[in-house]
Amino acid sequence: MRPKRDRYVLPLLILLLADSIGFVSGLMGAFAIRFSYPMTTLSPPVDYPSAWLYLKLGLFIALVGVVCFDRFGIYAYRYGLKRSVSVTGFLVAVIVTYVFVMAALFNYRGVSFSRMTVAFSVPATVFMLSIINLFCQKIYELLVQRGIGFTRTVLVGDSNSCQMVLDRLYTNRGSEYQVAGIVRTRGEDLENPGAPLLGKLSDLDKILKERTLEHILIALPEEDSETALSVIRKCKRHGVRFQVLPEIFDALSLKMDIEKLGYVPTLSLGETPLQGSARFVKRGIDLILASVMLIVASPIMATIAALIRLDSKGSIFFVQQRIGNDGRVFNMFKFRSMIQDAEAGTGPVWATSGDPRRTRVGKWIRQYSLDELPQLFNVLVGDMSIVGPRPERAFFVNKFKESVPKYMRRHMVKSGITGWAQVNGLRGDTSVEERTRYDIYYIENWSLLLDLRILLRTLLAFKNAH
């Protein structure tokens, strides 16, 4: 059987086309409502505008829209034609699109477009995109059932390896692989298989002969190397393309990007989307947010500074060296919440929820995380970001880098005042391993939308603390 080519790009092209149609039809629908149908408070104008002119505007909006969708990670958070993006993120991307469009129209003097039509097009676009998104999901299901545009694959391996691969495939949005079934070599039944069990290893020849398959994914641990060779021989005999995920799968579970070194294709493992232009965008947002937040919070900060001075002896600010981006050391600022020289007799230790070293004011400002406000100055000078992994002291970094897998990957991006681990309840004296997993997820899946989600959840957590 001759294996078909992988068609990874097809789902993305369909989504780009579908979203473009959604933006254009949203504007043209608003145009029809505004100028074609008399309403009680709105009647069609005497001079009927050119529909062709608004169609060109719709095409421009579609271009801006798909760029904004891409920057907000809406095309990254998908599996085939199915997207796993929150309603809030979807709405924010549409609104940002129209903010850019309105700014462009304000500076464009060639034609005066109806502002009411553009305003109507926002809800119309959301409606059309929602309908089209549901339609795409139905198309996706039909395509997968017919094996069109997607690679039908069978997963061969033990229970643990199969579960790991399935979890990874279904969270690695955009994968062109459709797991048609599982051939289990050993182990117990999978808890959440996500694909039908086709049989055991002894049934593989029969499965390959009777089913139309394009690809075999072999997920076996090192001790099953002989079994893997047996599967490979059967794949060659039946002319089925195969790939092997050996013990190195732990390393390959990192985010992967395909690049070319000259004419040689290579895999870049564990890269982050937060590079290139994305770094400049994030830095610009940090500067704006930090400046605004400092202006707004300045009365609160002045009050806290006065209370600390009145409450206990010592400095108002607590300055401590932390390890940031690329292992660089910087001085992090906080309001002092403990007695002066709190670690003089203990050495570096983590603060706990009921730490007896806290002052009266310190107990209050730590409860609402107000002691972190001076870190906005760290953001302004470029040592930190608003959102990112929390920075740690060199003593703990040297301790954890030996015992916690992938701990040093936390330093691929700038440290943050708040982060994905913190909004998921992993603050202070909690599992370092769990926090590291959340930090690495943030690094490998960064988007403006994810930053926005973290900021919103931080604000909600602060509100609930009251």
Question: What does this entry look like structurally?
Answer:
The protein has 466 residues and is of the alpha/beta class. It has three domains: 9-146, no CATH class; 151-253, NAD(P)-binding Rossmann-like Domain (Rossmann fold, 3-Layer(aba) Sandwich); 277-465, no CATH class. The chain contains 15 helices and 13 strands. A hairpin with a 2-residue loop joins β1 and β2 (82-83). It is flat, with a radius of gyration of 27 Å.
Radius of gyration: 27 Å
Specify the helix fraction band.
40-55%
What gap, in angstroms, lies between the N and C termini?
65 Å
Mean pLDDT: 78
Low-confidence stretches: 1-7, 39-44
Question: How many distinct beta strands?
Answer: 13
Q: Give the number of helices.
A: 15
Estimate what percentage of residues fall within beta strands.
5-15%
Category by helix and strand content: alpha/beta
State the major sheet: 5 strands, parallel
Shape summary: flat
- Give the helices and strands as they follow along the chain: HHEEHHEHEEHEHEHEEHEEHHEHEHHH
Question: Numbering strands along the chain, what is their spatial order in the largest sheet?
Answer: 5-4-3-6-7
